[in-house]
Amino acid sequence: NAGVMQNPRHLVRRRGQEARLRCSPMKGHSHVYWYRQLPEEGLKFMVYLQKENIIDESGMPKERFSAEFPKEGPSILRIQQVVRGDSAAYFCASSPPSDRVAYGYTFGSGTRLTVV
Amino acid sequence: AQSVTQLGSHVSVSEGALVLLRCNYSSSVPPYLFWYVQYPNQGLQLLLKYTSAATLVKGINGFEAEFKKSETSFHLTKPSAHMSDAAEYFCAVSDPGGQNFVFGPGTRLSVLP
Question: In terms of CA atoms, which chain A residue is nearest residue B108?
């Protein structure tokens, strides 16, 4: 049973380009969460999605960032017109639909975005 | 709303010594509490969790944590540190409904030979 799969592991983008980060949840998990970890900081919640539905995006920057979790395929975190400050590790977590918090989230290995 | 503080951003212990990583939380409702470990360049792995059952929780790799409501604490301990325990440790809190899942800033554990 594969865990949460994130790709790419490392992504380098020039300022102004777009970054697309992908997350495939664990089998049977229908809830996906994205977190950002800035250097020397903890994890900050960004967005919580279910299939075809954004449940909570209170942690998403208002501009340039968007997320989706389509009916088929992985969840995508999209950052348009990246800036140096977007350089961070982006982690995806997933959980099953029932008793999701008690279960505890399962995290992927992250995508490390570097903006040059 | 929930919040978490972790005293000490960096803790160093000698191999074989006691590990104590501190976590204090703030919550307006009975909390669920978690400890995660992050090894270099990897994702977070769940060490243990408290979800309103036994207050002393045992996790993987010999770690345990005790929920103390009166102290609003959930400190992580291990009797004898091993070199492989060197990592970043994150405490997290959530309400039972799953809203407001919040991580602390993390504590980096170094284990000295």
Answer: A40
